[in-house]
Amino acid sequence: MFEKGVASSTQSHDGSNLRVLIVHARWNKEIVDGLVKGAHDTMVSKYNVKAENIVTKEVSGSYELPFAAKRLISNSQVQSVTNNDLLGGTTPEEDTERPFDAVICIGVLIKGSTMHFEYICDAVSQGLMRVGLDTGIPVIFGVLTCLTDDQALERAGMGKGSNKGHNHGEDWGAAAVEMALLK
Ligand code: RBF
């Protein structure tokens, strides 16, 4: 037997200087909310990310996540340059609008009776990878692609039976900090 899933990192990660963006979809909101909370609370309690340095934005569906991530990353970079110009240069600690160090995109896709699911899954996974590689800012793939409602609930730690499952949002929070510090 082996322990399924991601093992804890052998290195310690201090997220106290990081600024992280969470973008989430509103489809299947109850499950999405659980995943967002898992990511948020893990970053704060386990990695010392300051709650005020976690910005949360929402979009309609998962298909919108890559575009939103790209635009919000670009805006944070432009804003930061403008602020530095206006203020005559600020240190990262003083600049609350400094660029994001990592982005977590969260959505829950559940297969229906048409091909929509396959198209959205493909577009979103390709799109999020592209945003990360194009911008140089780590983008975490926090999108569940499930065949049933129960699969989605269990992967948010909200399973109906005795097995509540595991909240994958916690792993996404950890991955965001680890990737942000990979410099
Ligand atoms: N968005 C999700 O985040 N999860 C879904 O399970 C989901 N299923 C959809 C099923 C259909 C038939 C349609 C039309 C849209 C669905 N969307 C879903 C919304 C999609 O991500 C996007 O918001 C819309 O297609 C508008 O671009």
TrEMBL record:
It catalyses: (2S)-2-hydroxy-3-oxobutyl phosphate + 5-amino-6-(D-ribitylamino)uracil = 6,7-dimethyl-8-(1-D-ribityl)lumazine + phosphate + 2 H2O + H(+). Its EC number is 2.5.1.78. Signal peptide: none annotated. Pfam families: DMRL_synthase. GO terms for molecular function: 6,7-dimethyl-8-ribityllumazine synthase activity. It is an enzyme of class 2 (transferase). InterPro entries: LS, LS/RS, LS/RS_sf. Keywords: Riboflavin biosynthesis, Transferase. Pathway: Cofactor biosynthesis; riboflavin biosynthesis; riboflavin from 2-hydroxy-3-oxobutyl phosphate and 5-amino-6-(D-ribitylamino)uracil: step 1/2. Catalyzes the formation of 6,7-dimethyl-8-ribityllumazine by condensation of 5-amino-6-(D-ribitylamino)uracil with 3,4-dihydroxy-2-butanone 4-phosphate. This is the penultimate step in the biosynthesis of riboflavin. Belongs to the DMRL synthase family. HAMAP family: Lumazine_synth. This is 6,7-dimethyl-8-ribityllumazine synthase. It comes from Basidiobolus ranarum. The gene is RIB4.
